[in-house]
Amino acid sequence: MLIGELAERAGTSTRTLRYYETRGLVRPRRSANGYRVYDEAELRVVHEIRALLAVGFDLDDIRPFVACLRAGNSSGDVCPDSVAVLRRKLAEVDDYLDRLGAVRRQLHDQLAHAIAHREKTCLRTRNRPD
Fold it and tell me: What is d(CA 43, CA 59) in angstroms, rounded to the nearest whole number?
């Protein structure tokens, strides 16, 4: 299939596909007239790339998944290098969630303090003799 058909079937643009190619993730053949020609396996690779990008992986993280698919595996996440990336990414997400939890607790405490301070100020204002 030509680049336009692959782009349409993968739900992306030809520009994106050319970018993936420059990064070594997508591999077209060249026809006699120089057109990029893709086989069905490249569609699977592009779907894998897009799915991983959608959950926060960057293109360098995706390389092992693509290599795993190219090695003939039915999924890009069954190879040891892919599993290592998944573990690292999960640890990053867990760390991020811990930091968000700490921020949430700080904001909650700050809000509670602000409300308590406001209530004290309002009480003093109300209890002042005119």
Answer: 17
